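name: query_chain
kind: protein
chains: 1
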Amino acid sequence: MEAERRRELTALMIRFADGDRSAFKRLFDGLWPVLLAFTTRTLPSRADAEDAAQQALLKVFSRSVDFDRERDALSWALAITGYEVMTVRKQRQRRREADGDELGSVQDPAPTQEEQVMADDLRAAVRAVLGELPERDRAALAFAFTGDAAPTDDTSRKRRLRALERLRAAWRKLHG
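structure:
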C-alpha cells in the first residue's frame, strides 16, 4: 500500500478515535480488504480467515480510543489481526480440527465392549422383528443384508417399499 493511502488511513483512524463517526465507512473500506488478504494468506480456511478479519476489525474499532496517534494505523490494525490469526490457530489446535483430507486417514478405534454388546443387541432385535415378517417381505429386504444391489424394476421397488412399511410397523409394535 502506498504511503499516501497509509497516511489517509491514519488520519481516518484519528478522526474515528476522536468520535467522528463519519470516518467509519471510509476506514472500514480501507482496512477490510487488507486485513482479509492478510488472514487469507495466513489461515488455511477461507471461513476462518473471514472470521479472524471480522474479529480484528471489531477490536480495531472498539479499541480506537487507545490508538497511538504517533503510529501507523495500518500497522496497528495488522498487529491486532495477527493476534486474531494466532487465536484462531490455537482454537483449531485445541479442538483438534482437521481439514477434509486429513479426516480420511483417521481410523475409527475398535469398538468398546459396551458398544459391541449394544450392536449385538440391536442385531438380535432386528432379527426378531424380521422373523415376524412374511417370507415375501424378508425376500424383498434380503439385498440389504447380503450387500447385493437392489433390483430396480418397479415391482421390486414397490415390494421393498411395502416390506419396509411392515418392518417399521413391526418395530414400533415391539420396541415403541
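note: The mean pLDDT is 85.
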